[in-house]
Specification:
Chains A, B: Keywords: DNA-binding. 2 copies of one chain form a homodimer. Chain A has helices at about 5-25, 30-35, 40-45, 50-60, 65-70, 70-75, 80-95, 100-110, 115-140, 150-165, 165-175, 180-195. The first copy, chain A, is mainly α. The radius of gyration of chain A is 19 Å and the shape is elongated. The structure holds a DNA duplex.
Chain lengths: ~210, ~210
DNA sequence: GTCTATATGCTGATAGAC
DNA sequence: GTCTATCAGCATATAGAC
């Protein structure tokens, strides 16, 4: 069973994640987090050394999913499968880790002043390996000679946007909350633009949301 | 000639734009802005009622360019020309109004708590009109039946990213500062993905950066 | 491990001399 | 129109009882 310590830390991180995503690091008061978690403020400080330490815990929680998302680039031999799976994984992160994604985005926007050097290095390594893989596929004539850096930036941006700018997307679509079919439609559109845009020959695989896991 | 009042207000807004983009609204101290502008802090308050009023002035400065960018959707009859021009205009905004773009993005990320209802309504109207235009082109068989909302989200995200996540882009590309050719390459890639992805027949027009204005 | 009360420092904003 | 000195309020963080 989870110790009381673990249970409380988890509750605090989860709540902090929501509040930091909503209002950003600087504008967030530790009392906001405490109130929302149903705890007195001092309790936060019993489990976390400082507001910044809590923020870093939230921030680091998204690193592992982001690193994992790159695995199709190592696993797949085929650019179509790799790109499909990567886009799908990235949209899934925007859906399943929406708040942490937003905290991460805000951090990156301001030059990542709180992100650990280790996390940064890992993310950079994975990005570079994946871009190298794209370069190889291009050299092998398996996709068009697009700029692999810019291709990555477009994939990052278009998938992240469903977490980062969720408010805007809800406004424009008139939805109250994004549904599974919305994320599927997003995945399909982004996948379509990328595959057709890079002249990747469509194989026998299905649309992302109908494909087997 | 510009009055001393106008000149100072402009200097303060320009400086504030940089600082707000760097550190965000809440984390920015008015003294940071004053120091960077070479003025005593009280001078800021002589020209602007409050930190928030100054922030709103910065925020509103990007609205007009953003609204203007939609004009190709009204001007052009041809989806190819409209999409090319819109993407080009959006990348140009990310380049020429990088700081204000970033401030705007941060504001949208947190649900636009400071944006005026008027600006919001105008932006929404333009977005909806443009999406309606896409829908018409699709109905007329001039482009593939993609989801026009998601297409817009991808265009917004992929063009904005060059302002919002400039730090990340510099890290990954190893550049010190983005050059004209980088923005051109970005425009070309995004345009390619969108046009090929939507089965828009490429006409006689050139790549964005070689096309006549 | 929990929580109340409080100290400490910082920042937005202003008063008032020049 | 400019600037120094200062205030008032608020948020982080802790002391210490339970």
């Amino acid at each position: 069973m989870a110790s009381i310590r673990e249970r409380n830390k988890r509750l605090i991180i989860k709540t902090a994640c929501q509040v930091f995503a909503d209002t950003g690091f600087a504008a967030t008061k530790t009392s906001d987090i405490a109130d929302k978690a149903g705890l007195p403020k001092a309790n936060i400080y019993y489990y976390f050394k400082s507001k910044e330490a809590l923020y870093r815990a939230v921030l680091e929680s998204i690193i592992e999913p982001l690193l994992q998302a790159y695995s199709p680039f190592h696993r797949e031999e085929d650019p179509e499968l790799a790109l499909r799976a990567y886009i799908k994984a990235k949209v899934r992160i925007s859906r399943e880790h929406a708040d942490a994604s937003k905290v991460f985005a805000s951090e990156i926007m301001h030059g990542a002043p709180h992100l650990s050097a280790d996390s940064l290095a890992q993310l950079k390594t994975e990005a570079e390996r994946s871009i190298e893989r794209l370069r190889q596929w291009i050299a092998d004539g398996r996709m068009a000679a697009v700029d692999p850096h810019h291709l990555m930036f477009t994939i990052w941006a278009s998938t992240q946007t469903y977490a980062d700018f969720d408010w805007q997307i809800l406004e424009v679509t008139g939805r109250k909350k994004l549904q599974a079919k919305d994320y599927d439609a997003a995945t399909d559109l982004i996948t379509r633009l990328v595959l057709k845009g890079c002249d990747v020959q469509p194989g026998s695989t299905q649309d992302s949301h109908t494909a087997p896991a």
